[in-house]
Design the sequence.
C-alpha cells in the first residue's frame, strides 16, 4: 500500500467509527426525547412506561442507525442538490431526511407498545383506536424529531470530528 491507500483506508475506518458513534448518540437522544414526548402526550405518564418505551425505541433507533448510512445518504443529497455542507439549507434538508427515516419507525414501535399495554391492562376491553393514536403521535414526533435532529446532529458531528481528529469541512 502506498501513502494515499493507507490514508484513504485510515479515513474510511475513522468515518465508520464516527458513523457508529453518531448512530449511538442520536439513537439515545432521539429515543429519550421522543419517549418522553409520547408518554407525556398520552395523558397517562408513568415512569415504567417511559423507561420501557425509551429502551425499546433506543434499540430500534440504533438498529436503524446501523442499517441506514445517514452520512452517505445526506452527503449524496447535498451533492445532488448542490448544497454546501453545514449550510443552513443543508442542515434543514438533512434534518428532514433523517426525520423521515427515523421518526415513523420509532413512532410505530412506541405506539404499538403503548397500544399493547393499554389492551393488556384492560384485558382487551379498552376502546382505543390504534390508527388515531399512531397518526397523532406521528405528527407530534415529526415536529419534535425534526427539532432534535436539527440541534443535536451538528453538535455530535463536531464533537466526533474533534474526538477523531478529522478537520472541519470549513478548514
Sequence:
Amino acid at each position: 500500500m502506498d501513502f494515499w491507500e493507507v490514508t484513504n483506508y485510515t479515513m474510511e475506518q475513522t468515518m465508520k467509527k464516527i458513523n457508529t458513534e453518531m448512530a449511538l448518540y442520536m439513537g439515545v437522544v432521539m429515543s429519550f426525547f421522543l419517549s418522553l414526548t409520547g408518554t407525556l402526550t398520552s395523558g397517562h405518564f408513568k415512569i415504567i412506561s417511559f423507561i420501557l418505551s425509551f429502551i425499546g425505541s433506543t434499540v430500534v433507533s440504533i438498529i436503524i442507525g446501523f442499517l441506514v448510512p445517514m452520512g452517505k445518504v445526506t452527503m449524496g443529497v447535498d451533492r445532488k442538490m448542490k448544497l454546501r455542507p453545514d449550510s443552513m439549507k443543508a442542515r434543514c434538508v438533512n434534518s428532514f431526511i433523517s426525520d423521515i427515516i427515523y421518526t415513523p419507525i420509532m413512532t410505530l414501535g412506541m405506539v404499538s407498545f403503548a397500544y399493547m399495554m393499554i389492551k393488556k391492562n384492560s384485558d382487551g376491553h379498552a376502546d382505543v383506536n390504534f390508527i388515531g393514536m399512531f397518526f397523532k403521535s406521528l405528527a407530534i414526533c415529526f415536529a419534535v424529531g425534526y427539532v432534535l435532529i436539527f440541534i443535536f446532529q451538528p453538535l455530535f458531528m463536531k464533537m466526533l470530528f474533534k474526538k477523531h481528529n478529522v478537520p472541519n469541512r470549513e478548514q
Remarks:
- The mean pLDDT is 87.
- The helical segments are 3-41, 47-67, 70-80, 88-121, 130-163.
- The chain is about 80% helix and 0% strand.
- The two ends are 28 Å apart (CA to CA).
